[in-house]
Design a protein that fits this description.
Helices cover 27% and strands 15% of the residues. With 207 residues, the protein is of the alpha/beta class. It has one domain (12-186): Rossmann fold (3-Layer(aba) Sandwich). It has a 6-stranded mixed beta sheet with strand order 3-2-1-4-5-6, with helices on both faces.
Length: 207
C-alpha cells in the first residue's frame, strides 16, 4: 500500500472521509481476481486503512447506494479499527444498475473529504459526480483506465481531465500501476517510512 498522506483537520466534519467505490458492472472490465473491480477494491482498501490510521472516521459507500448514516469506521486499536472496513470491502459485489445511487449523500453542508475509486466514467455520470464534488470540502479520485483490463472500448477517455476541470484532484490508474505510484501522481505521497500493508479478507469469486 502506498503511504497516502492526508492531513486531518480540527473540525469534526473535516475529520470525516467518505470512501466511494464504483462497483457498477457497466463500469468495469475483466473477470475474477484480475478484474478492474478487484483492483478498485484493493485501491479502496489501501485508502481506507490509511485514513483510519491517520485518525479519520471513514465510511464506505458504493454505487449501489446507502443511507447518509452509513457506518463510520472510527480510529481505534489496530485490527479492530480496520477490520470492519476490510470485511465490508470483502463482500462488495457488482451491481447491475447503470447509474450511481446517491442515497448516502447528505443534504446541505460539506461532509469533509471524499475519495472516489471510479470505474469507467460516461457522460451520463457527470451530473452525479458534480453533485458528489459539491457535497465535500475536498474531493479526490482514482479513475481506473478500465479499457486496459481487456480490449474493450476506451470509455475512460477524458475522465481525468473532466474531473480535474470540475474540482476533483484526479489521476488515472491501470492494472500495472503500483498503488504507491498512483498516490505519488495524485500528489499525496509522503515519506514511505512506516508504510503498512493490510490484507483484505478472502473474497468469493464473482458469480
Amino acid at each position: 500500500a502506498g503511504n497516502l498522506m492526508v492531513r486531518r483537520e480540527e473540525q469534526p466534519w473535516q475529520s470525516r472521509a467518505t470512501l466511494f467505490l464504483d462497483n457498477r458492472k457497466i463500469a468495469h472490465r475483466g473477470a475474477g481476481a484480475g478484474s478492474s473491480l478487484e483492483h478498485a477494491v484493493s485501491v479502496a482498501a489501501s485508502v481506507g486503512v490509511h485514513l483510519i490510521h491517520r485518525g479519520f472516521s471513514v465510511r464506505l459507500v458504493t454505487a449501489a447506494g446507502g443511507e447518509a448514516s452509513s457506518q463510520w469506521h472510527e480510529h481505534g486499536s489496530l485490527m479492530a479499527e480496520t477490520g470492519p472496513l476490510l470485511e465490508s470491502l470483502a463482500v462488495v459485489t457488482e451491481t447491475g444498475h447503470p447509474h450511481i445511487n446517491l442515497k448516502w449523500l447528505q443534504d446541505g453542508g460539506h461532509s469533509g473529504l471524499l475519495i472516489g475509486v471510479l470505474g469507467a466514467v460516461g457522460d451520463h455520470d457527470r451530473p452525479t459526480l458534480t453533485r458528489m464534488r459539491h457535497s465535500a470540502a475536498n474531493a479526490m479520485a482514482v479513475a481506473l483506465d478500465v479499457a486496459a483490463w481487456n480490449r474493450g472500448p476506451a470509455v475512460q477517455t477524458g475522465a481525468v481531465s473532466w474531473l480535474a476541470g470540475h474540482g476533483w484532484r484526479a489521476v488515472s490508474a491501470g492494472p500495472k500501476d503500483p498503488i504507491p505510484s498512483v498516490w505519488e501522481e495524485l500528489g499525496l505521497s509522503g515519506r514511505t517510512a512506516g508504510a503498512h500493508r493490510e490484507r483484505i479478507p478472502t473474497r468469493e469469486p464473482a458469480s
